[in-house]
């Protein structure tokens, strides 16, 4: 059993040394040429003109209430069902399971055909149809032999375990795939449209090419067609210039927020505007350049390498993989964020997905069995957290 070193839960305020490696979408570092550095050298913070005392009154801490499930293999996506129960995808096993959030009992719905796990690819994000009460559809984002794609499947809980998923209906194909940088998050927005995050598979120019589906946030109808009101004619592209987004969530004002992996220096939290250009590969972090949207908060890649995000009690909660911590970013009434705070530093290893579970609770998924962690007994887990 590998012993983890627990880091104290204080937010680092000192300037960190700039690293020279490349952070993949899970935080593993490889040699690569750097991209332009942002003007600010602060880490784990909002833009430098933001005062710390502007943070809104909100619940400011979090504690682990209990372990909901354990011994999961490469869990990635998590989707609560309206009638109760949590759906969880296994990236490497290409299965979707249902977990009773009270007893922890797990039932495998079935394996998703056509998934080709490799590197950071496999079965990733899942989402439940907004019309689930009538259509019982589950949506999934996965890597196939040729591309990344989005499918929907009928879920029939009356069938035997392992046979509860219908044949996948592909609603969108042709998303560029790579060993790394596959994006993968799926979520239905308040507008009942389906949003998906994609990566640029280590080809930065794809992020700036509005004709490519790579390095984007996509918005589509439940059938996979360009959603009404999209910024570009006859296109599912909603925003571009992204390196590798894996977190999507909406606040009570229906603003969309996204977490994004940086390369050499800065990971990001962004407020997403339709048609916005978020800079990659021309800008990493806060560039302050005309034509690009700057992030509202940045972190060093050692502190974050962010995946999923959720919004609860006035804050964005962001799961860190390489950073092995849960970040809280308090939101105010505008389009900016107050200074972030870190929790659970090193306590549970790599953190993949976080989902709101009511007004003051979160579900948190660890990610120690994905090939980059140090699994301990019981990994991986789903934890129930209370925001206090």
From TrEMBL:
GO terms for molecular function: oxidoreductase activity. SUPFAM superfamilies: Soluble quinoprotein glucose dehydrogenase. Keywords: Oxidoreductase, Signal. Residues 1-24 form the signal peptide. Residues 369-388 have a biased composition (Basic and acidic residues). It comes from Streptomyces gottesmaniae. This is PQQ-dependent sugar dehydrogenase. The keyword rRNA-binding does not apply.
């Amino acid at each position: 059993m590998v012993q983890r070193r627990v880091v104290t839960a204080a937010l680092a305020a000192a300037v960190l040394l700039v690293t020279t490696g490349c952070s993949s979408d899970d935080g593993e570092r490889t040699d690569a040429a750097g991209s332009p550095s942002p003007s600010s050298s602060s880490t784990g913070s909002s833009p430098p003109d933001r005062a710390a005392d502007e943070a809104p009154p909100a619940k400011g801490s979090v504690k682990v209430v209990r372990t909901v499930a354990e011994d999961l293999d490469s869990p990635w996506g998590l989707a609560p069902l309206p009638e109760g129960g949590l759906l969880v995808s296994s990236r490497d096993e290409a299965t979707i399971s249902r977990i009773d959030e009270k007893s922890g009992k797990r039932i495998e719905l079935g394996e998703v055909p056509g998934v080709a796990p490799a590197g950071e690819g496999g079965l990733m994000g899942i989402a439940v149809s907004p019309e689930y009460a009538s259509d019982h559809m589950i949506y999934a984002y996965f890597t196939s032999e040729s591309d990344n794609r989005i499918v929907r499947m009928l879920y029939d809980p009356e069938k035997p375990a392992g046979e509860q998923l219908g044949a996948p209906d592909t609603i969108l194909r042709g998303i560029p795939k790579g060993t790394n940088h596959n994006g993968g998050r799926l979520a239905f927005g308040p507008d009942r449209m389906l949003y998906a995050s994609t990566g640029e598979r280590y080809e930065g120019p794809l992020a700036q090419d509005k004709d490519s589906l790579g390095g984007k946030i996509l918005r589509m109808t439940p059938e996979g067609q360009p959603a009404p009101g999209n910024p570009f004619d006859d296109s599912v592209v909603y925003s571009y210039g992204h390196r590798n987004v894996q977190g999507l969530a909406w606040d009570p004002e229906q603003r969309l927020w996204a977490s994004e992996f940086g390369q050499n220096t800065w990971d990001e939290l962004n407020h997403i505007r339709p048609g916005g250009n978020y800079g990659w590969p021309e800008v990493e972090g806060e560039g302050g350049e005309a034509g690009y949207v700057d992030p509202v908060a940045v972190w060093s890649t050692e502190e974050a390498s962010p995946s999923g995000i959720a919004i609860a009690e006035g804050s964005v909660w962001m799961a860190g993989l390489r950073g092995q911590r849960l970040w809280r970013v308090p939101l105010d009434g505008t389009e900016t964020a107050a200074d972030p705070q870190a929790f659970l530093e090193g306590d549970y290893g790599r953190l993949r997905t976080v989902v709101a579970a009511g007004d003051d609770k979160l579900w948190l998924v660890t990610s120690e069995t994905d090939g980059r962690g140090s699994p301990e007994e019981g990994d991986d887990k789903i934890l129930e957290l209370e925001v206090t």
